[in-house]
Amino acid sequence: MSAIPAKPSREGGISESLYRLPIPWKQIFIYLSAIFAFVYLAGPFAWIVISSVMTSEEAVSVPPHWIPENPTLMNYEAYWNPAAIENMREERRLTVGGVVAAVPVAMGNSIIISFAVAFLNIVIGALSAYPFARSQFRGKTTLLVLYLLTRMVPALALILPVYLVLRQIGGLNQKWGLILMYMTFTLPYSVWILKNYFQTIPRDLEDAARVDRCNWFQAMIRVILPVSLPGIVAVGIYSFMAAWGEFLFAMILTQTPDARTMPVLVAQLSTELGTEYGFLTSSAVLAVIPPLVLALIFQRMIISGIGAGAVKG
Amino acid sequence: MARVYLDQICKNFGDFVAVDTLNLDVQDKEFVTLVGPSGCGKTTTLRMIAGLEKISTGKIYFDNDSVGHLPANHRDIAMVFQSYALYPHMNVYENIGFALKMMRIPRPEIERRIQWAAKMLGIEMLLQRKPRDLSGGQRQRVALGRAIVREPACFLLDEPLSNLDAKLRVSMRAELKRLHHDIERTFIYVTHDQAEALTMSDRIAIMNHGKLQQFGTPDDVYYHPANVFVAGFIGSPAMNFIDGDIVHENGDYYFTRGALRYEIPPRLAQRLQESGRTTAVTLGVRPETIGVSHETSASTEANNSDGILGTVYVDEPLGSDVFLTVQVENAHIIVRTDPEFRTTFGEKVRLTFNPQKVYLFDQKSGEAIR
How many angstroms away from the CA of B98 is the closest CA of chain A? Predict the structure, then answer.
């Protein structure tokens, strides 16, 4: 009936073509890359965690192995149990005992300093970024670029002047000295990040809050900041991490354990007299915990699209 | 309860004059629409009334109180934004109750008012949802709810319907008008849509280039436009304008353009006589007031007793009407006529203008001659 000629069937039919599925090279490549990247990034970390539950001797034994023969928490115990240090061999106690005993204090210092830096970055950053995002004033762009330019100076060039200034104002060996220092190199970025974030928030939201009986400050606290939460969390995490991992200034600006932070202390476990792999790795694991916890808590907040639905999309 | 009175308001952004010496007197409980093309200063005016924009010069009064110096949070107004501006981190209930909370109104009263507003707008079942889970129309209602719970002296609405689809816009238009009737407050409404202005308002303020062109009732601005701009802006399809000259012969006045010759009705002729004006003028005729008939004779006379001769350029049937574009003396005239009137492109037709409903404008100043 139909005048349309039947479509010529391909030779072989379906069953044969199944065998000729192309090899998914692209997929294979992507997965291999992902596996490689994972091993590359997570491998050293895994080694540190594993080594931290080995004795120092086992950790450096040749050939290296991944499964501890006698897992032990002795590398951690010394941090909260002074008796463990007392029981060390004398020369060992003299070389690393003091350092190990200072770990809890350093941990506290790191936490205080990093949280303070994160908090101050959020408060000062938000207050300074808002005018940059919203108003027009003379020298706005110049000022923003200047902020970034301060970051173009190498840290090494700054150390001596910073040291002298801090000594002058009594900021050496003080937590606030380090906080002050860290603020100078985190705040410019925070202002930029928050400025860009605020610019994505519709101005109408602020206006609506004003009309809804908020003064400027209330509009900021009740509407702008909650809506900016992802940006604020990003700034908090960024500045926390910057302060947490900073080594150079922390080492130069602190000579006593009072304000010494974890990176400096961990480094002291590797001395001319030898490297304490057990304590080195266990303190490194301890040092990873706070940022890790923070990242886990806030990751959902960072990625949740809280701004969706504010205005007609 | 508030009368809103703008006294010689100006707003400059640098050298740009956004609003130029605007006087506007909005009566208590009146629905006034500011309408005009984009950039005409209508939204800026609304923002100045709200206190979101500083006034360059002039004064704003709510009743007898000068409020020009007060920030937005100290003026008793509620505003609905074009973007709705719902707080994304709050649910509908919190959105609607936010201003009440800021005003420190007791909790049971807040609860009562939110329920009242939600019921009025039909959004009771949405109170726990976040704005991102609402449709455009629902967000619109929440934005309205946020305004009405305040029971403010004055409502300011900035193109609240322009983000809705055409069908919803028409139904919300009616609901807004009803809402105004029910809650008996002053409404100041900004739109660029002349149909919204005509259908909803008690009075319409038409603005262009920062200047008030005319302020009057819908009938006023439709039937007695003050100038070419108002005449062209109000009404859809827009009024037809034909530029030409005035000729005075044997005591009668004629509008002429090429072979086209149209006797000016006595009402306007008298005005011309009084002013002795023979300058270039623009003739204005609304599409719905033009009569059209098929040309039956073979006459090629441009004007005879049957009307003005033209050629059909295009016809656009709309179901209820037909829009006919007719070429007369290289001017296009749009005619709105019955759907039964069918033509073909290029066909000759005769147009008749209703002498009661033609307008004359001074070509130079654009002012209506009336």
Answer: 7
Residue A213 has its nearest CB partner, among B103, B133, B163, at B103
- Residue A221, token pair as written in the block: 């606290």
Give the residue on A whose Cα is nearest the Cα of B164. Answer: A312
Q: A101: which residues sit within 8 A by CB, 6+ positions away?
A: A78, A82, A85
Exposed, middle or buried by CB within 10 Å (0-12, 13-18, 19+), for B323? middle
Alpha-carbon distance A280 to B48, whole Å?
65
The CB density around residue B266, as the number of other CB atoms within 10 Å, is 12
Residues of A with CB under 8 A from a CB of B: 202, 204-205, 207-215, 218, 222-223, 226-227, 229, 305-312
| Residues of B whose CB is below 8 A from A304 | none
Q: Residue-wise over A225-263: b if at least 16 C-beta within 10 A, else e?
A: bebbbbbbbbbbbbbbbbbbebeebbbbbbeebebbbbb
Contacts of B150 in chain A (CB under 8 A): 212
Q: What is the 3-state secondary structure (H, E, C) of A146-157?
A: HHHHHHHCCHHH
Residue keyed to tokens 């049957």: B306
Residue of chain A minimizing CA distance to B99: A212
Pick from B100, B132, B134 the residue to mutate for testing the A interface (most A CBs within 10 Å): B132
Maximum distance among all alpha carbons in chain A?
104
Which DSSP state fits B227?
Answer: B
What are the residues facing B206 on neighbouring strands?
A: B35, B214
Residue B356: DSSP 8-state: G
Q: What is the pLDDT along chain B (370 residues), one digit of tens a residue?
A: 589 999 999 999 989 999 999 999 999 999 999 999 999 999 999 999 999 999 999 999 999 899 999 999 999 899 999 999 999 999 999 999 999 999 999 999 999 999 999 998 889 999 999 999 999 889 999 999 999 998 898 999 999 998 888 888 888 899 899 999 988 999 999 999 999 999 999 999 999 999 999 999 999 999 999 999 999 999 989 999 999 988 888 888 889 888 888 888 988 888 888 877 667 899 999 999 999 998 877 766 766 667 888 999 999 999 999 999 999 888 899 999 998 888 889 999 999 998 889 999 998 889 998 8
